[in-house]
Amino acid sequence: MSLILYDIIMHLDTHLLALVHDYGMWVYAILFLIIFAETGLVIAPFLPGDTLLFVAGTLCGMEALQLQWVLPLLMLAAFSGDNTNYWLGRTLGLRLFERFSGRFIKREHLDKTRVFYEKHGGKTIIFARFLPIIRTFAPFVAGLGLMRYRLFVLFSALGSLAWISSLTLAGYFFGNIPVVKNNLTLIVVCIIVISFLPALREFIRHRKQSA
Predict the structure, then answer these.
(1) Per residue, what are the HEC states of the chain?
(2) How far apart are CA 182 and CA 171, in angstroms?
(3) pLDDT for 50-59, tens place per residue?
(4) pLDDT tens digits, residue range 69-113?
């Protein structure tokens, strides 16, 4: 049972249509919780994000889900997750890192986010939305570094709007085009690869500078 639940959570994008048929309206709550957890819990950077939004948009195009519900609900999930993570970093950051370091919170993920943060400043909160792993750690680091909350809220709102709307609407408008629909698995893999390209570029650049 636990393995089945793990598979559904880790590959929610591929199970989403079946969940819509089985659970109906509860799928909106599941989507909210997944997006909230990926952005709001520093120990959950492994959850699906970009691909889940694209597939959710595709299902909206099929009218299996309602776009007018999905967009505001997931924007709220991303925004509230960001803010939860910020205050976790600000109030419990050092203690959480010391307790979970090595098991759930990896030092290299935190260091990579700090480097990204130093390079891009407050805009990191927006840029990080489109980078797996970094988007989970960016608000935590912002809180840990005592970034001004008023500034954080502004960037968090803009980032939530940009991330949720762009990927969900991409799925809505393009997910049901026959060539995309017939190769959805390939498209999902491409989204994952594209999502990791900026982080890979930063890693290669960092290695060259260290060499």
Answers:
(1) CHHHHHHHHHCHHHHHHHHHHHHCCHHHHHHHHHHHHHHHCCCCCCCCCHHHHHHHHHHHHCCCCCHHHHHHHHHHHHHHHHHHHHHHHHHHHHHHHHHHECCCECHHHHHHHHHHHHHHHHHHHHHHHHCCCHHHHHHHHHHHCCCCHHHHHHHHHHHHHHHHHHHHHHHHHHCCCHHHHCCHHHHHHHHHHHHHHHHHHHHHHHHHHHC
(2) 14
(3) 888 888 898 8
(4) 999 999 999 999 999 999 988 887 667 666 655 555 566 666 666
Contact 133, 111 (CB under 8 A): no
158: closest CA among 124, 187, 192? 124
209: number of Cβ within 10 Å: 7
Is residue 125 a contact partner of residue 82, using CB atoms and an 8 Å limit? yes
C-alpha pair distances (Å), 50 with each of 116, 128, 191: 19, 12, 7
Strand partners, 101: 105
Supply the pLDDT for residue 204.
59
Q: Which residue has 């929610």 as its token pair?
A: 12
What is the structure's pLDDT at 145? 72
Q: For residue 113, which phi and psi values (nearest 5 degrees)?
A: -65, -40
* Among 105, 69, 75, residue whose Cα is nearest residue 88: 105
What amino acid is encoded at 113 in this protein? Answer: T
Q: Is the dihedral of CA 174, 78, 31, 114 positive or negative?
A: positive
